[in-house]
Design brief:
alpha/beta; 5 helices; globular
């Protein structure tokens, strides 16, 4: 698959299809769609999550990629740009706008949206959580609990 400047590898395409199958299976069973994706370093999970975001946007979904830390936010935003996916970034030093696709720093989200209420935020249908093993606190869980689909990488 070609997504903007990126040509995906067959293992990435296969992983995307397994995620789509899991979403369909959970929905058909009437269960909450909560998926953890595990793959080795260098496999291209950032690209895989970008493919999922691009696909969701074609279905008029709102999707948020939640991450902890400036380096990971900047890395994901750069990948989305290379994929040709318009998005906003909710983090200090970036412009945030009401976009169907967002890359979000969890700390900035809590500071600006939850605690200060200075940024209106529309709840996404789909949350993608990067480094999901770090997202086990009540703070993280309170953000993603109402998402229709939650995918952790």
């Amino acid at each position: 698959m070609i997504l903007g400047e990126i040509t995906t590898r067959s293992n990435q395409d296969s992983l995307v299809e397994r995620i789509r199958t899991a979403v369909r299976t959970l929905r058909a069973a009437g269960k909450p769609v909560r998926i953890i994706v595990q793959a080795p370093c260098g496999m291209g999970k950032t690209v895989v999550s970008s493919i999922i975001m691009a696909s969701a946007l074609t279905k008029a979904a709102r999707i948020a990629f939640m991450v902890h830390g400036r380096l990971l936010v900047d890395n994901k935003s750069a990948t989305l740009k290379r994929c040709g996916i318009p998005h906003s970034v909710l983090m200090n030093g970036h412009d945030y706008w009401d976009s169907p696709a967002s890359v979000i720093s969890v700390d900035t989200y809590f500071s600006r949206v939850i605690e200060k209420g200075v940024i209106p935020f529309v709840q996404p249908n789909i949350w993608i959580v990067d480094e999901a093993h770090t997202a086990q606190s009540e703070r993280w869980i309170s953000l993603i609990k109402d998402g229709d689909i939650v995918i952790g990488f």
